Amino acid sequence: MHHKLGEFEEIVLLLVAAQHGEAYGLSITRAIEKELSRPVTMSSVHTALYRLEEKGYVSSHIGDAEGNRRGRRKRVFLITAEGKKSLIEARDARNHIWDMIPKFVIEFS
């Protein structure tokens, strides 16, 4: 079954792909805040990650405890083949709509 991506899910999935093998809740939260200048809570990122995992777009595993995590290990997320397919479909759909806009409509004079 194929699921459509919401905008926030798409952003989170893009960052999972961009942070290949290094994506976890805090790293994605920080990237959204830095790259998009958009405030976000870690709980909303975790909710999106778990929804993406339920849809089969990401997989996760428990990473090693490192740094000052007091022995807690982080859950690391990876994009799956289905996730890649979904991102490509979302990009293609957006590009198709962008291509429908007459050039003069979005040009600045």
Walkthrough of the structure:
- The protein has helices at residues 7-18, 25-36, 42-55, 81-100, 103-106, and strands spanning 58-62, 75-79.
- It is mainly alpha-helical and 109 residues long.
- The protein has one domain: Winged helix-like DNA-binding domain superfamily/Winged helix DNA-binding domain (Arc Repressor Mutant, subunit A, Orthogonal Bundle).
- The protein has a two-stranded antiparallel sheet.
- Helix 1 (7-18) packs across helix 3 (42-55) and helix 1 crosses helix 4 (81-100).
- The longest helix has 20 residues, at 81-100.
- The termini are far apart.
- The model has no long low-confidence stretch (mean pLDDT 91).
Distinct helical segment count: 5
Question: Mind telling me which CATH architecture this is?
Answer: Orthogonal Bundle
- Any low-confidence stretches, pLDDT <50, length ≥5? none
Rough shape?
A: globular
